[in-house]
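Q: Protein A?
A:
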Amino acid sequence: MLNTMELQIQCLLWLQNLRETTNGIFDNFFMSATYFGEYIIPLSVIALIYWGVNKRAGQFLLFAYGITLFVNVFLKMTACIKRPWLIDSNIKPVEKAMPAADGYSFPSGHTAGAMAVWGSIAFLWWNNKILRYIMIAIVLLVAFSRLYIGVHTPQDVIVSIIAGVFIILGVDCVTKCIDKNKNRDIIVYSIIMLLTVLLCVYVHIKCGLQMQNYNPLTDNVNPVEMKHSVYSKISFIAGIFSGWIVENRFLKYEIPQGYSRKKTVLLIAGMAILYLLFKWLYFAFSLLVPQYIASAVTTFICSLYITVLYPFAIKKIMS
């Protein structure tokens, strides 16, 4: 009888056979689908909602995204499960997906990110059936795409979806708790920052222990490189909640009411600037400091840009 992992590998091999039988006709479609779980599209949607649609919903999405990153990093560094093709050499992922599929496999970061954003939107606007079904469909599409292109096992995406449900419900409880007493925001912020520091310490110690038995000839995941790769995520978490507390305490941004051409232009410009910041800040900083530091600084600045810097600019321009 096949064990659980063998069944999962058989599932991936069946999808791989489907790719080969169809000559990869669906490869580009599913590769494109994975982008709905990466940084730029989800964060652009969060920014649009936070700046111009519903500030409370935008904060909810930021909370969900930040906590999802925390949980994903913790689980990846704790489980240290290899990618499918390292478990079974018969697995041949879509070649274009390989560069971004570094590090550990479990759980799926793309699926987790999709749950944090699209799943949260479905939760917040649950009574809108059309929107709800579209958002759920996007989450499932991202999850399936990770299986189809061969970079994750079913357990990777299933656990991400389940964890995402609990994170969304947890964020709902936390935001309602803050609403009952505005002074609780500093308590929540302090707890999250403490947990973020502890996560940094945990990752540092865990990778240090792994390096003691690391063999570059047989081990495909370098613990130091893995540690460096998660710094940007941890930095993003710190930036999201730091920006949130500054905005909540001092800026008190309010979305401009009604429709105007100026408001529309500001929203579009803001998302364009966000894309350029992600791209060019990293390039600029990487000329001065190691790449992992450049990535961490970039994500920290971008998270502050979403939460407080651009809202400040909108407030000044629209006043």
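Q: Protein B?
A:
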Amino acid sequence: MKKDLVTLRDLSADDCEALLERSLELKVRHAAGISDQTLQGKTLGIIFDKPSTRTRVSFEVAMIQLGGTPLFLSAQDTQLIRNEPIADTARVLSRYLDGLAVRTYSQDLLNELAAATSIPVINGLTDLYHPCQVLSDLMTILEKKGRLEGLKIVWVGDGNNVAHSWLNAAAILPLNLVVACPEGYYPDEAILKAAVEDAKGEIVMLSDPEEAVRDADVIYTDVWASMGHESEYKRRKEYFAPFQVNEDLLIRAKQDVIIMHCLPAHRGEEIDAEVLEGAGSVVWDQAENKLHMHKAILERLYNLTNR
């Protein structure tokens, strides 16, 4: 039976723990020059109709380093652009490929694609979720702090797709998550409600960033206007100004707080340049860890599907 990663809710706590353990192991092995060829002979189709740097490159390199072959397909170059039914595309690609990583706008489209394939489908980002990003973020926190449980993790900014996946993570793992957004820019109400109901730790929703980051172990931010919201940029820039992650905000957090950003970053907007480049910033390790987490995800989904 195949295993997808369409949202983090597709994973169990055991799945997440296995991915975290394996991604950290793969990072150590890669640094030691050990070549793992666990996906030799396997293929990964990568279909993106949203721009990408880190997600695309890390999936392609992950597949290559594991001995497999990535095949990048722009959505504009497929028959989907000519209104071929999604199910038809899915069934055909299932005959050619061993897995699909998809970056698109609509979560419904991704769900339909996953439902029609016989191969694993991985969400490389939709407007609603970004599960692989948060898995690599969890890896980074575990790498830097040595644990996840008991830490205060604070999201500061827009209640966007990454925030939604953090909420999903808190419904699976024992995380203490604080989400601080301006009123009117909270996460999706249904996603928030479901996460709070299933929370393994504590989930708190606030509109005061200063209160939110008090004694924080981790502070995470993202751009104020995600892809698809560029037309709101001017209004958001003014409205989100009090939510900038800067030195004035950090003095309320723990002294050893780590700063995270999934990139690309707009220095001087959601995050101050000195904070992004400062001693507490782990954003470059965070970006690197996408590669190792993607390797772990590919291994696990392919292995579970081929049982």
